[in-house]
Amino acid sequence: VAELPAIETAYYDRLNGQEFFNVRAMGAVGNGTVDDTEALEDAKAAAYASGGVIYLPAGTYGINFTNSSPTFGWYFNQAIRIQGAGIGRTTIRNLSTSAAGLRFGVGSIFLSDLTIDQNNSTGNGLIVSGQYSDVRNVQVVNQAGAGYALVVNGATLSTFDNIQVNNTSNGVSIGPTLPTNYLVFKQLSIEPASGRALSIVTGTGINFYGLYLEPTGTAGDLERMIFIDNSTVINIFGFACELGGTHTLTDAAYFELNNTRDMTVAGTYINHEGTASKTLFHLTGTTTANLNLLS
Questions:
Q1: Handedness of CA 145, 146, 150, 155 (dihedral sign)
Q2: Which of 28, 192, 195, 221 could form a disulfide with 39 if both were Cys (CB 3.0 to 4.6 A apart)?
Q3: Beta-bridge mates of residue 153
Q4: Is the pTM of this model over 0.70?
Q5: Helices and strands per DSSP (H, E), number in the chain
Q6: Which of 97, 92, 95 is nearest to 115 (CA)?
Q7: What are the two backbone dihedrals, phi and then psi, of residue 83, each rounded to the nearest 5 degrees?
Q8: What are the phi and psi torsion angles at 37 (to 5°)?
Q9: pLDDT digits over 224-277, tens only?
């Protein structure tokens, strides 16, 4: 979607029968310091009413949900479409120190072409729970504390394309409390500063096509790269891991598998320059066979 000009009304255009609601027309400033929460909430209400698209032109939009828990933030409880102008061009910046960035509950969502800057908030960056969701060209940065940059929890039959996680305490968590099945990730890049890169719990049919992991920052311990628990049919086609510099890995292996079966990893590159050599897999619990390693 091309850059939209500033307009006075809430409506901009129709694309495939859908109205666009430009947050600038709702009063958003987009300079990174002003709290644009009210304008973004107005755009959400308008899109809910008409089934339209929330459009965020290039700019940095501050949101502040100070009364929310770390699992809330800008919250959506029905199907919605949100469109930015591109990663690094449209940014949603969290002005709270503890709330989540964006949370999508029930209903399928379409989210694309923007950056979520957690601004060192300890809440989760992006939470997706709605089935049949489509998230593409989205970056999450600067998440701190115990939360994750991206949490996919119950969002069965969803697709994630070109997802970038940079400078966060933890990377991606799939199915932490709800069974989460049949996901497709295309080009997932996780660059955590510490903590955990990727965690999968109670997942079935999780497929990765291009998974890249590399810690950021100057030094520190990365607790684990990939942890998979109570899951089955996990496929990774194209896995690259860079653990260079002064980073070390706490876990005994790059893949920690517990009560997991039927897993395929094809095309693996690991550079462990910054730490002692680790085993590729560490199996615990009732993890069974059918572990396929393909060059």
A1: negative
A2: 28
A3: none
A4: yes
A5: 1, 25
A6: 92
A7: -125, 130
A8: -55, -45
A9: 788 899 898 999 999 888 876 566 667 667 788 888 888 888 888 877 765 555
